[in-house]
């Protein structure tokens, strides 16, 4: 492989995973691409609550020597309990800890920030190994982002916003998440509303001090008006905390969309809007609102999918949520990001001198998986099933869930309607086998 220079934008889940596999690609360290990872936040962003790694995702973390480290850092969530305003459990569905059947809770549930940190540190360790053997390794740039991006036949030319530096790369990978700026710079601002398909659903993730009713189960409460809250266990590093996903399905109130476009700058407005909507919801919402107002690890966004006919344009390619977010309600976002990083690294390793062939191979490997993951059970109605608008709708859903629970049919439904991660094929690209990694 001739040494390509590759800029990976985003040090979340997909970005450092891609870098790690690129480092494990060729056996000659001098042939490893020159990788730069650019992350907007000033340090690896250790933020975000529960995500799951399923099926193909587990195979991929195993290939990076990370299975043991990641399993040691899971939340241990037992499954999901559906509760009413008096906190009575109507139905509960446990996780299949063998990973054979995919239910709402996977056998690997981990906090997103913790996972991103593990992937970052794994890429750092592999980079040091490559440097030790005479290769270049990875250059990490934190606290900056790209303001301009232009490409000609030979290079992609970018300007860093904060440093003002201009640099050129052979390839640029946008792994910068749902609201990807790389996507807008490379594919154009126009048409963005057709690529980002919202479900009229908005949600916030944050943590709060653990209360006496919080357990190792996820508790899921719904209130009329399309409101839902999940309270979930945190991990071994935060045994005194619980994790919250608070969401609203609302197609009328434009404020939900407006505050989402403000990103991190809009946190106060986002919190105020959710507090307003949840004020009269009952159950534990008083406590949860108070804790939301106090928390500093709050993350709010529209719940959406990214749908594109092609994930590359010239020498720029999209990876993970940036190109094909399946939304947190799919349970497949992290597994897709990992599978995408693995397949993109494989394609680049197999076609080192032909980025068009590499991007086509990546597209062919990923398209069926993405289509499968984005097909939500219940289709476009899925958000309304997650958060019915009326008390009657909530009662009906509870009755259906209770029926599935008491009849023992829940396992059968999960087998056919659960996240499709066990159906995803993981190809072979001849990467070096990574040693089991230990946190030191
Ligand atoms: C702060 C945060 C919290 C999250 N919390 C949850 C959660 O609780 N539950 C859940 O299911 N999913 C959550 N997600 C989404 C989840 O991480 C992804 O769906 C999934 O893991 C796919 O990962 P990804 O690497 O494609 O994207 P992400 O994990 O979103 O990573 C993208 C990275 O790019 C960085 N970035 C963004 N814009 C730029 C830019 N212009 N320049 C440089 N870097 C940029 C971000 O800071 C981030 O580190 C969260 C994402 C983020 C960023």
Automatic annotation (TrEMBL):
GO molecular function: FAD binding; oxidoreductase activity
Domain FAD-binding: 5-369
Coiled-coil regions listed in the entry: none
Signal peptide residues on this chain, from the entry's feature table: 1-19
Gene3D superfamilies: 3.30.9.30, FAD/NAD(P)-binding domain
Keyword set, alphabetical order: FAD, Flavoprotein, Oxidoreductase, Signal
PANTHER family: MONOOXYGENASE, OXIDOREDUCTASE-RELATED
Record's protein name: FAD-binding domain-containing protein
Organism: Oleoguttula mirabilis
